[in-house]
Design a protein that fits this description.
alpha+beta, OB fold (Dihydrolipoamide Acetyltransferase, E2P), Dihydrolipoamide Transferase, Chloramphenicol Acetyltransferase, 3 domains, seven-stranded mixed sheet, four-stranded antiparallel sheet, 14 helices, 23% strand
């Protein structure tokens, strides 16, 4: 008797997903609630767990197939050792009637299979498990650097690189110089093939398809416009340098620039509430709270976890939330709830070296602030040319809801708060 494995509920308004990867193969023993497959939804990766303990009897869909919520994707048979024990039992029966000769002696099992079998004994996130399978490393031999000693994706990549390091040894100069062999000339011809024009077709992930569809929909629906300004970062940099050690000692988190910008946007949104509003049908919805979507780069694309009630949070709370979301995005463990909602977005392209950009709004939001890299530039101050650490700011907005005057006013308020952080304390 077997038990059906169904696609679980994936969140509000999400009815289907793509089967990204099978984590177990037919014949593998599985424990109750052990992940056997990974699904890719519009936003995150979701694991499908075995409903009962037993053996994975069959897979009903292939990797890359689209499945709906409630669909049966596999079946788990009862008895964890039923399938596994069948083969050894048959071997014993065969051995009793036909003893193997010297040439028929069973070979030892390939040790390369061991790492895959040991995955169930370790707590691995979907992203880490995928990296283990891709790089063919043994997770039991990796020292985790994550929380509570858990293995991260970086740990897997580092282990794979260290494992691959000795690879050049077989093609060292001494063997190549040996006269009897002609292997070296054959190997030398390989680069010529590598220089040929090649193409590779890779199916877009569901996350990338969704990003593409939503960004294009934002362009087609909203009346997008971008206004720019620059900001002198001297005051924020000075405050950060003075208090960063005390801040980290007290709160256990580093003081970054994002906290200043989140607080500045919360302050500016009080003066220009339309920037924190949205259009729903023929109505404008104004929010008396600020839920900031912070754009974070993940392995499969850009994700925007939400810092809720950011206007009421302290600097430490903001920085801790951003750090936690960044770690989850890297590990692929963000949940639907953590990325749902949001009334305003901040995107920091400066961490990648961007000097200037025109970000696209995240519907149904009406505005997004783009931060960029800090660069020393000559500016005029009190009639003199001085060098200051400057940053360009860009505010993209939906002109259907936000007028140019309001957009410029909002950006000026942010500039004023960053150049004089005292305004953040006395609410100016």
């Amino acid at each position: 008797m077997s038990t059906d494995v169904k696609v679980p509920a994936l969140g509000e308004s999400i009815t289907e997903a793509t089967l990204g990867q099978w984590l177990k193969q037919p014949g593998d023993t599985v424990a109750a609630d052990e992940p056997i497959a990974s699904l890719e939804t519009d936003k995150v990766s979701v694991e499908v767990n075995a409903p009962v303990a037993g053996t994975l009897a069959e897979q009903l869909v292939k990797e890359g197939d689209t499945v709906e919520v409630g669909a049966i994707i596999a079946r788990v048979g009862e008895g964890g050792g039923a399938v596994a024990a069948a083969a050894p039992a048959q071997e014993v029966a065969d051995a009793s009637t036909n003893p193997p000769g010297p040439a028929e002696t069973p070979l030892p099992r390939d040790n390369a299979l061991a790492p895959a079998e040991e995955h169930a004994d370790l707590t691995l996130s979907p992203a880490v498990r995928r990296a283990v399978l891709e790089h063919h490393v043994d997770p039991s031999k990796i020292n985790g650097t994550g929380k509570d000693g858990r293995i991260t994706k970086d740990d897997v990549i580092a282990a794979a690189q260290s494992k691959a390091a000795p690879a050049p040894a077989p093609v060292a100069p001494p063997p190549q110089k040996a006269e009897p062999t002609r292997a070296a000339p054959a190997a030398a011809s390989a680069p010529a093939v590598a220089g040929q024009r090649t193409e590779e077709r890779v199916k877009m992930s569901r996350l990338r398809q969704t990003i593409a569809a939503r960004l294009k929909d934002a362009q087609n629906t909203a009346a997008l416009l971008t206004t720019f300004n620059d900001v002198d970062m001297s005051a924020v940099i000075d405050a950060r340098n003075r208090y960063k050690d005390l801040f980290e000692k007290k709160h256990g988190i580093r003081l970054g620039f994002m906290g200043f910008f989140v607080k500045a946007c919360a302050l500016a949104a009080r003066d220009v509430p339309s920037v924190n509003a949205s259009i729903q049908g023929d109505e404008i919805v104004y929010h008396d709270y600020l839920d900031v979507s912070v754009a974070v780069s993940a392995p499969k694309g850009l994700v925007v976890p939400v810092i809720r009630n950011a206007d009421a949070m302290s600097f430490a709370e903001i920085e801790k939330s951003i750090a936690a979301y960044g770690k989850k995005a890297k590990e692929g463990t963000l949940t639907m709830d953590e990325m749902s909602g949001g009334t305003f977005t901040i995107s920091n392209g400066g961490v990648f070296g961007s000097l200037l950009s025109t970000p696209i709004i995240n519907p149904p939001q009406s505005a997004v602030l783009g931060m960029h890299r800090i660069e020393e530039r000559p500016v005029a101050k009190d009639g003199q040319v001085v060098i200051r650490p400057m940053m360009y700011l860009a505010l993209s907005y939906d002109h259907r809801l936000i007028d140019g005057r309001e957009a410029v006013t909002f950006l000026v308020r942010v500039k004023e708060a960053i150049e004089d952080p005292t305004r953040l304390l006395i609410d100016l």
